Amino acid sequence: MADETVTAREATLLFWATMAVSMAGIFLGIFFSFTSIDLAVRVAAALLVGIVGIISFFRHSVYFRSDQVRMGWHQDHPAFQLEVGYANLAIGIWALVAAVFNGSALACGLVLAIYGTYLLCTLFLHAAEAADTRYKNIPADRQRAVRSVLSTLFFVLFLFGFAFIAFARAGLVPFMHL
Asked: What pLDDT score does 1 carry?
């Protein structure tokens, strides 16, 4: 069997696909919020949680070795990474079900809030990594950790923002109904 060198190529492509879908989801969610709140939260749930979650599953679980290279990790037992991928897949599938088959603001708001909460927890992990003093002499690793904190924070804010809009549409926000 030939020596198979693992590179970050696949994971990097999947990461950039995640970023592209995220930007499209944010743009389209905002765009449609001016014409139809229901459509805006369905699009946000489908793209920001459904498609992003499924792409993240492939990056974390199917191409986990490539993802380890991309993140500068090495694990002999990647069960944690596989588990993260499965969580992304589970939430992503149900987001697509909520957005495509049900379409209610409440169902979409719930998957947006669930994914936002999940990623808020990962934000704390990324922040701890960025603050780790072991990286002070490794600028590339520190920059990667800081970029991860900023991009995750940005994404979490939009997830919670669209969740709030969905909950307001569903009549769950006191004194506010869209």
From this structure: 46
* Contact present, 51 and 118 (Cβ < 8 Å): no
State mean pLDDT over 8-29.
97
Q: Which of 132-136, 157-161, 165-169, 172-176 has the lowest mean pLDDT?
A: 132-136
Cα-atom radius of gyration of the chain, to the nearest Å?
Answer: 18
Cβ 10 vs Cβ 63: under 8 Å:
yes
Quickly list H helices, the chain. Answer: 9-33, 37-44, 52-57, 64-71, 79-97, 105-131, 139-169
What type of residue sits at position 61? S
Write out the two tokens for 105.
């603001």
Q: Is 103 left (phi over 0), alpha (psi -120 to 50) or beta?
A: left
pLDDT of residue 143: 83
Q: Which amino acid is at 47?
A: L
Distance CA 29, CA 24 (A): 8
Is 60 exceeded by the pLDDT of residue 3? no
How sure is the predictor about 176, in pLDDT bands with cuts at 50, 70 and 90? confident
For residue 38, give the nearest of 176, 137, 162, 144 by alpha carbon. 162
CB–CB of 62/86 below 8 Å? no
Query: 155: Cβ–Cβ under 8 A, 6 or more apart, which residues?
Result: 22, 48, 119
